[in-house]
């Protein structure tokens, strides 16, 4: 199946996909601020440039989109029909890179929390999970 957009239009659409300050990431950041927790964003000196970093707690948080990082939920396991081989390879590379970054952070003594886009739908559960992670030694 061919793409429904021209290559120029597809390029324009893909350029508009943000890697930072996404809606799920902003939701987590708002919740952390409401909880009174301080953090830093996208520390370049850490493997994978985590979305949210709490250096004093040695906690790195990644907020992953289910589609882009190949989560096993309904949205993440969906593969586009157009250019299927490309998307399977791309998501596979993203997953492999995520595993490498997590291992590198853990080797440096950091705790790593991965929040999936689909996990953010239940606000109470998300807040409870964040409170537990922030309070952990």
Provide an overview of this structure.
With 137 residues, this protein is an alpha+beta fold. It has one domain (7-135): Endonuclease, Chain A. Helix content is 45%, strand content 12%. The chain contains five helices and four strands. It has helices spanning 7-15, 23-34, 66-69, 84-107, 123-135, and strands at 40-41, 52-54, 59-64, 111-116. It has a four-stranded mixed sheet, sandwiched between helices. The mean pLDDT is 91.
Summarize this structure briefly:
With 137 residues, this protein is an alpha+beta fold.
Portion of residues within helices: 40-55%
CATH class descriptor name: Alpha Beta
Average residue pLDDT:
91
Low-confidence stretches: none
Main pleated-sheet profile: 4 strands, mixed
Which class best fits the helix and strand makeup?
alpha+beta
Helix/strand order, N-terminal first? HHEEEHHEH
The total of beta strands comes to: 4
Quote the distance from N terminus to C terminus: 51 Å
Helical stretch count? 5
CATH superfamily: VSR Endonuclease
Number of domains: 1
Morphology call: globular
Work out the strand percent: 5-15%
Query: In angstroms, what is the radius of gyration?
Result: 16 Å
Strand order of the largest sheet: 1-2-3-4
- CATH topology title: Endonuclease, Chain A
Proper CATH architecture: 3-Layer(aba) Sandwich
């Amino acid at each position: 199946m061919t793409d429904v957009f021209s290559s120029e239009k597809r390029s324009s659409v893909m350029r508009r996909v943000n890697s930072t300050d996404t809606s799920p990431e902003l939701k987590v950041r708002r919740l952390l601020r409401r909880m009174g927790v301080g953090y830093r964003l996208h520390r370049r000196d850490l493997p994978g440039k985590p979305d949210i970093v709490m250096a004093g707690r040695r906690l790195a948080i990644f907020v992953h989109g289910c589609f882009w990082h190949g989560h096993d939920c309904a949205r993440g396991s969906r593969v586009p029909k157009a250019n299927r081989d490309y998307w399977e390879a791309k998501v596979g590379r993203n997953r492999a890179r995520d595993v490498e970054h997590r291992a590198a952070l853990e080797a440096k003594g950091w705790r790593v929390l991965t929040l999936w886009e689909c996990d953010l739908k239940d606000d109470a559960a998300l807040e409870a999970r964040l409170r537990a992670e922030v309070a952990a030694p």
